[in-house]
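Late entry, written up from scratch paper. The run itself happened at the end of the previous shift, but nothing got recorded in the book at the time, so transcribing now.
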Amino acid sequence: MARKIATPRIPKKEYEARVPRLRERLIQLQVELKAAPFPVLLVVAGVEGAGRGELINTLNGWLDPRGVETVAFHTPTDEERERPFMWRFWRSLSPRGRMGIFAGSWYTETLREEIHGAKNLTQLDHELHRIRRFEQLLADDGALILKVWLHLSKTAQHKRLHALASDERTAWRVKPDDWHHHRLYDRLGQTARRILDATHRPATPWLIVGADDERSRDLAVGQLLLTRFREHARKIKKAQSQKAKAQGTAAAPLRAAGLRRLLALPLDQQLSAADYEEKRDKWLGRLNHAVRAASAQHRSIVFVFEGWDAAGKGGAIRRLSSAIDARDYRVIPIAKPNDEEKAHHYLWRFWRHVPRAGMVTIYDRSWYGRVLVERLEGFCSEAEWKRAFTEINDFEAQLTERGIIVVKFWMHISKDEQLRRFREREDTAYKRHKIDHEDWRNRRKWHAYEVAVGDMLALTDTTFAPWHLIPANNKRHARLQILKTACKQIETALEGK
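Output as recorded:
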């Protein structure tokens, strides 16, 4: 149950005496936050007339504007509606070392829809489950999420709105919708209680702050920021000191079935150049038709290409994309994260590129780096990469719930074939840029990578986003198999099977 914070009325003189010290401490918080390995996300919600805007304006006046950003969410735009519900919130997340104040949040749309008609409880519970998962994911990554609900009784709300509307200097702040919300106070209150109860969790608690007295309200929230920041900073420091780095060892598989599936894949397929050319155009044409049919239904497509170094991902992507109008697709090559990407949750950079309705995004490597290279190279802890399997499944589920067709390929080659291709790259001037010392270093961890790939296949092969294993020793066979598989999955998805 959300904790209620008492906010007794504070005289103006006492308020003015306390504010300078509070401001000084908040600025010091921001100085410390710059070096902290986490962001601060302050969500301000509450009933109409409780002073959310006034509170945020006050906080912005107390804080250094260079380290804080206020984020507001209005009715979704066409661009936002064409993507999964959480897309616009992911894009607005503050990076580590900064603070974001959310004047509207992932709760806003749920409450807004309730105003226009009572929401189906099953649908509401689904939305709240999605919000819980989102907040827990951010909290697991270290974010401090401070959620404040500003409370006014129905009588106090009426009094506040009437006082504002009666003064010509403030009448502009009261809109017809505010009175409409007041008339729905009891019904909206029931929904609010359901939201607070469902999303109040140890890592992301709600704090209910009385808003009858503006001065007391503002001081209470300012003090909350200080208290929770100190507690969180100590918690993160302790966790970091206890955190054991993941080591690149050939650990036992989490699910042996995935490794068996990988090792059982036959790699001796052959396809002549003549046979390939004969069949290629047919499947390119069919793929073009499937992609255009998806666009006509406002269905986006996300292709994910993973595989061994030198497995032929780039060549396969070039052949596949040749069947799509260049204006309708983007290829996103994934390399080491830059500084901006490192400052966010690892999924942030992939959410940014989720396509609009009817468009195609092709990821040349993807979020699976978390459970492959980051796992093996120790770039994340064991707890983090193990948690990532669930996070990735949830991410892909949100894509497919929005109607996006997710087509995932693992391109598999033998160790001997990889060695042959590495040497060919070194001996060919225009291919030499494709290989460096990291490729050779990764090769020395072949078995460890096999185990990691096996875990990935076993734990993220879902009905809504299945893995397709492509034998790729023969490049022509692999490319044709990818075209066929892409066509069939898209066609099946459009048929609703």
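The two ends are 43 Å apart (CA to CA).
(Scratch paper discarded after transcription.)
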